[in-house]
Specification:
Helix content is 41%, strand content 16%. Helix 2 packs parallel to helix 3, helix 5 packs across helix 9 and helix 7 packs across helix 9. The termini are far apart.
Length: 296
């Protein structure tokens, strides 16, 4: 194994925490002020200090609804920061894995989205993430854009934690049933990202570009909530009845794509990676989440 670490930009988000948990000594995770996407000098200094074999950008503005009222901040973190990071990587000959999102699509396609499908974001967050993809590609040839979706884990804020928290205080929850996606367990995602980050540092790798990475299996939000409560029940945690509602009855500041399914064929073909079924991750994370919510 190469002794040089994988440098992760980000420290407190779900994916960054999962990368630190899974990667151990192979990974250096840096957040502000040590690696600040709004401070290009700090990014360059982090690269010089740690001399990584590759970089994973797991940082950025990820609050989808808040991006509607803070578009400038979202753009600084999702476009300007990644551009500066890509430039610093280019100057040092370091390949970059930049995480993006299903929100670059409008959700109108009838099948799972492939990396080469046309993009058409329908919210500010999605537009800034797409512009960030373009910025990285313009500055650095040796890059991968990895789009991810519906991430959950024991780390940070996510849909699973939200459902369990609601069930601890109420008997019924209403959940949208017309948003479909592929839930993704952050530790499984992290293991795949680390394998990819090592592979792209090998001599001769040239399959640069856009990839999709999400858990096996698709579901809608309401069905996912029912699976969450079924897993919680098996582990002695809170449960609630789920009422299906359409997205139109649950308006949010930012529109989400109704179809967030991502096709992983290219990722499997190039890297030999298929993430496990998301249900496995749900059962693995559940005991810790139940304890944390009970003690909150």
């Amino acid at each position: 194994m190469n002794a040089r670490p994988v440098l992760v930009i980000g420290r407190t988000g779900q994916v960054a925490q999962a990368l630190a948990h899974v990667g151990g000594a192979r990974v250096v995770c840096l957040g502000r002020p040590d690696a600040d996407l709004k401070n290009p000098a700090s990014l360059a200094q982090a690269l010089d200090r740690h001399m990584p074999v590759s970089v994973i950008n797991a940082g950025g503005f990820t609050l989808v609804d808040r991006a509607e009222t803070e578009p400038d901040e979202a753009r600084r973190l999702n476009v300007d920061g990644p551009r500066a990071l890509a430039l610093a990587c280019r100057e040092r000959g370091v390949p970059l894995v930049h995480l993006s999102t299903d929100c670059v699509f409008d959700g109108d396609l009838a099948r799972a989205y492939r990396p080469d499908d046309a993009t058409n974001p329908i919210c500010t967050y999605g537009r800034t993430k797409l512009d960030g993809e373009h910025a990285v590609a313009q500055e650095l040839g040796e890059h991968l854009i990895v789009r991810v979706s519906w991430i959950f884990s024991r780390f940070g804020h996510n849909f699973v934690r939200t459902m369990l928290s609601l069930a601890s205080t109420r008997e019924d929850v209403s959940v949208v049933s017309d948003q479909v996606g592929c839930p993704t367990y952050a530790p499984a995602l992290a293991a795949a990202l680390l394998a990819i980050a090592q592979r792209i540092a090998e001599p001769g790798f040239d399959a640069w570009g856009i990839y999709h990475l999400a858990g096996q299996g698709e579901t809608d939000r309401a069905s996912l909530a029912r699976d969450i409560f079924a897993s919680s029940a098996r582990h002695g945690g809170p449960v609630a009845r789920v009422s299906d509602v359409p997205t139109s009855a649950y308006p949010t500041p930012a529109r989400r794509p109704l179809n967030a399914r991502l096709d992983m064929t290219r990722t499997a073909d190039v890297f030999g990676i298929d993430l496990p079924p998301w249900q496995e991750g749900l059962d693995e994370a559940m005991p810790v989440l139940i304890r944390e919510i009970a003690n909150a």
